[in-house]
Amino acid sequence: MQEQQGSLEFLSNNSITVLGLIIVVATGVLCWLAWHRSGYRMQTGWLELLRFVLVGLVVVTLNQPEWLKTQPPDRRSTLAVLWDQSKSMQTRDVFENQDVSGERKSRAETIQPLMSEDVWKAGSLSNNGNRQDATDLNIVFEPFSSQLDPADEATDLNAGLSHVLDTHTNLRGVVLLSDGDWNVGNSPVEAATRFRMKGIPVFAIGIGSKVPLPDLELVRMDAPTYGVANKQLRIPFVVRSTLGQDRDVRVTLSVNKKATVTKMVRVPAMSQAQENIVWTPGAEGQGTGDYTLNLRIERDAEELIPENNEISAPISIRKEQLKVLVIESYPRWEYRYLRNALERDSGVEVTCLLFHPELPDVGGGRTYIKRFPDPRELSRYDVVFLGDVGVQKDQLTVEQTRELRKLVSAQASGLVFMPGRDGAHNSLISGPLADLYPVVLDSATPEGVGSSMQGYFALTASGQRSLLTRLGDTDLDNGEVWRKLPGFFWYAGIKRAKVGTETLAVHDQVATAAGRVPLIVTKTYGTGKVLFMGTDSAWRWRQGVEDKYHYRFWSQVARWMAYRRQMAQSELIRLFYSPDRPNVDDVLTLHANAIDNVGGPLDRGSVVVQAISPSGKTQTIQLQPGTEDMTGLFVGAFVPKEPGNYRLVASSSETGASVQTDLSVQGLNREQQGRLARFDVLEEIAKITDGRLVPISEVPSLLEYLAALPEPAPTVHRTRIWAHPIWAGFLIFLLGVFWVARKMTGAV
């Protein structure tokens, strides 16, 4: 036990001290006079002496005496070495002697020599060169990453620092070995502030490169969850470069580890390229079933981090039979060529409803129907094309437009608005389809705008990225195709696109007060999708190329709109979800359409989804029925906690129907290799705590600084004499003795 030292201390001020002295002196004079008047009697002398002592003790109490007992620390000082063991520390971007051409080590390998007590106890030399007792310094090593499972998938700097502060006492300081790649948890500023309040410095040693190393990185691959056999599948991807020159990069798509498609991509220096690669399932002998797609870029000769050149994702290939309904009045050219395009598509079953005013009867031909489908029949259609028809005699009724709205909002179907020169769509913008209509029509030109001069489509920034308007294999080719497409001589009278929509193409010349006239506009409504085509001349795209662009565009539209409905379906139940490729901890919204035993939407019942995780754990989600327009729709949500393939099984106890599908959940990949070290985070922690930030090469200077740190302050125990109960009792006792003595001497 260390020797303790005690001392008396008064917490007073000059005014109280002076006043106390005056009172003591005055009391002393009065006491002497009283003793003198008594003829110097012995009893009176003792009584006045007690009075003087009591007044003196009261004056001392007013000056707040305290007894201080100082005790040096009874434990050794602790130096905590906090080291980062997250996956980002596997990045190989540290070079010997800062020579990029030399041997490259990972960040984790770089800190290994510092994981020894001898390294840090070597810093116990004092400033005059005499070695202090090394045993007086307790060295502890604390790894940290995150509180997730697995832990090394993220970095929680705040939790790591807080753990050290809460676990260890007599901390002289903390050495933080990290790349600063903080990505989960609270801000490390919170823990740094606690260190500052306790007077404990944090010394950060930054590991990794602060500047981008030469690298080509495959940032992402946006593969869909399923594809259709014998139909082209476009898979967007992004390649980022930190090289000093432009590069032609070979991208290879492998299916089940077999190289299938290759493509050369031009990646600008210190920038990125967004491209897509085209794969046709079945072209290389693949049939329907589950496959693994692997996208890989070749390693460049100057590249130093090849670990981020590859991405994999599962995909399901299936046969497809979309059901499409086309509703039209006059059989205009756009209608005729659209019908032909859909009929020639082996994956589409097309049905037509033609309200021809000059024909006595509706229907009568192949693929034609004689009336608008009832709700049960309508629910089978994945996409509805609404031509130049409206709410009027011998066409649509208000109730039928209401059923179309329910089809889109509750059953994830698509609706395509294709206005014409009769202006029939003006009757739709004030009824049940008003909220679905993605543009505001101009009432001054109800029949549209015609011109003897051709107008042309101009893609917006969204249109240049969208797969709906992808008519070329590359961005450059696609832009060239749209510039050369035949134009149009008529377009609908449009004021502007509505809020919440996405405009893909506009008129290349004509503008309104809101900007260029929007011609191709999309919108999400409920669970379904809406598209507006503002001209009736897309059929002219066939000029000189036949069906190359016209068929491709409408085929992409139909499949884009029906994508969600096709995720998983059986005769009586359909399951779809969003997002279709979620990450761990994303909220996955589940939708199910249930059909009763007579073919209508199930309005009374229940749907349950069982989510079976990759580890075999099962979570049951009770979907809630929709309201109003959502009849037959059941909605729920769950949060996947594991990366990998989930099995989703949806079932209805009322109908006995069930359907299952696989869900691919991506890991968050927070700890991406190749990212820059975040020295700014480490510098802020060190600055707040009065510590220092040094690179790994300057550790010796840090050791000298640690040696100069003062020992933790000794513990001081304060005893407040003036407020102690024993002191108060002592004063009361003396007052009692004084009062009794006065009674005995006859002074009272």
Search tags:
748 residues; 8-stranded mixed beta sheet; 32% strand; elongated
Radius of gyration: 41 Å
Overall 3D shape: elongated
Mean pLDDT across all residues, rounded? 86
Q: Give the uncertain stretches in residue-range form.
A: 124-135
Distance between the terminal alpha carbons, to the nearest Å? 56 Å
> Count of helical segments?
15
Largest sheet: 8 strands, mixed
Strand content: 25-35%
**How many strands in all?**
38
Report the structural category.
alpha+beta
- The amount of helix comes to 10-25%
The largest beta-sheet arranges its strands as 18-17-19-20-28-27-26-23
What does this structure look like?
The chain has 748 residues and is of the alpha+beta class. It is built from 15 helices and 38 strands. The strands form 9 sheets. The chain has an 8-stranded mixed beta sheet with strand order 18-17-19-20-28-27-26-23. Helix 5 (157-167) packs parallel to helix 6 and helix 6 (188-198) runs parallel beside helix 13. The chain is elongated and about 145 Å long. 35% of the residues are buried. Residues 124-135 have low confidence and may be disordered.
Secondary structure topology:
Elements: E1 5-10, H1 14-37, H2 42-62, E2 65-71, E3 77-84, E4 92-95, E5 104-106, H3 107-111, H4 117-121, E6 137-144, H5 157-167, E7 171-178, H6 188-198, E8 202-206, E9 216-221, E10 226-228, E11 233-241, E12 247-255, E13 258-267, E14 272-279, E15 289-297, E16 310-318, E17 322-328, H7 333-343, E18 348-354, H8 375-378, E19 383-386, H9 398-411, E20 414-417, E21 439-441, E22 449-455, E23 457-459, H10 461-465, H11 475-484, E24 488-491, E25 494-497, E26 502-512, E27 515-525, E28 528-533, H12 550-562, E29 568-569, E30 573-578, E31 588-594, E32 607-612, E33 618-625, E34 633-638, E35 644-651, E36 658-665, H13 679-688, E37 693-695, H14 699-707, E38 715-720, H15 725-745
Parallel strand pairs: 3-6, 3-7, 7-8, 8-37, 10-16, 17-18, 17-19, 19-20, 20-28
Antiparallel strand pairs: 1-2, 2-38, 4-5, 9-11, 11-14, 12-13, 12-15, 15-16, 21-25, 22-24, 23-26, 26-27, 27-28, 29-30, 30-31, 31-34, 32-33, 32-35, 33-34, 35-36
Helix pairs in contact: 1-2, 2-15, 5-6, 6-13
